[in-house]
Amino acid sequence: MTPLQVAQGAWLAWIVSWFAAAAWSESALVVAGLAFTWWARLHLGRLWSSTVTRKEHHHVVDSGPYGLV
After folding, report:
1. Which end of the chain, N or C, is surrounded by fewer C-beta atoms within 10 Å?
2. Each residue's pLDDT tens digit, 18-64
3. What b/e sequence results for 10-22 when a residue is b if at least 16 CB atoms lie within 10 Å of its CB, and e otherwise?
4. pTM (2 decimals)?
């Protein structure tokens, strides 16, 4: 098993655990947290990475969800 496959498996387990927690607790707060997390990642676009990496056209993002936080 390659390190990439291990990382992908870990992400899948994390996502499944979040959905399981949302279903178990039936909490709107959990669902809102998941939605906010995905909004933040989508807002970063190509700047998002699972590791710390300097990307081309790197800049500090202070709009969208990052502007709220």
Report:
1. N
2. 888 777 766 777 778 888 999 999 999 988 888 888 888 888 999 99
3. eeeeeeeeeeeeb
4. 0.56
User: In the prediction, which pLDDT does 26 show?
Assistant: 66
In whole angstroms, give the CA distance from residue 25 to residue 6. Answer: 28
Q: How many domains does the chain have?
A: 1
Q: Cα separation of 2 and 7, whole Å?
A: 9
How far apart are the C-alpha atoms of 46 and 44, rounded to whole Å?
6
Which residue range is the domain that position 18 belongs to? 3-68
Q: Give the 3-state secondary structure percentages of the chain, helix then strand then coil, rounded to 5.
A: 70, 0, 30
